[in-house]
Specification:
203 residues; mainly alpha; Rna Polymerase Sigma Factor, Chain: A; Arc Repressor Mutant, subunit A; 2 domains; elongated
């Protein structure tokens, strides 16, 4: 997008008004063919969708391509949105379908959480950083041993911070099933971590 050097007060008010527009209203405008609404919806949700896909496909180039595909689908099918879920949930549902399709095409469905906890703490001492790195490696290895269904639940609920209701809509399963998978995923992960000598994880 082109950089705007000078913006009038009226234009600034217009931008603020656009930013305050709900996702549902934006999607309605997209359905009516508004490119401006599409650009704003993209800007608002691109990062979240990208990170969600990246955790599944573990390839930045593929993730970027799939993000483009997701929003192209949104542009084409905005009028089909029925409002039974949040727009963000609908976007992640499309993103999940795209990611799983890409994984099948690559002939592997490894939903490992590589990179999930790779946010550096610059206040760490070298010793603390090494300990954190070792713990992350153990966590990733343990998560990789979970079933695909349990890895998805861990990703959505704990790392992507979706609600139980949202996770159910994204996965297409009842909330009760989400809760059951969460319970068994946490139980199995705790056992795996304990066997690796990790009783608790720092928040």
């Amino acid at each position: 997008m082109q950089n705007i050097v000078a913006i009038s007060a009226a234009a600034q008010q217009g931008i603020l008004a656009a930013q305050a527009t709900s996702d549902d209203m934006l999607l309605e405008s997209v359905a009516e063919g508004s490119k401006a609404a599409m650009h704003l919806l993209y800007a608002r949700h691109r990062v979240r969708v990208y990170r969600f896909i990246l955790r599944m496909v573990r390839d930045a180039t593929i993730a970027e391509d799939l993000v483009s595909q997701v929003f192209l689908d949104v542009w084409r099918t905005a009028g089909q949105f029925e409002g039974r879920a949040q727009v963000s949930t609908w976007l992640l549902s499309i993103a999940r379908f795209k990611a799983l399709t890409a994984l099948r095409q690559r002939a592997h469905e490894d939903l490992d959480q590589d990179g999930v906890l790779n946010i550096a703490d610059h206040a760490d001492t070298p010793e603390a950083a090494l300990e954190r790195s070792a713990t992350r490696a153990i966590l990733r290895a343990c998560i990789a041993r979970l079933s695909p269904a349990h890895r998805e639940i861990i990703d959505l609920v704990y790392y992507h911070e979706t609600s139980v209701e949202e996770a159910g809509r994204i996965l297409g399963i009842p909330q009760s099933t989400v809760k059951t998978r969460m319970f068994y995923a946490r139980k199995q992960l705790a056992e795996l971590l304990k066997n690796c000598g990790v009783d608790t994880l720092a928040a």
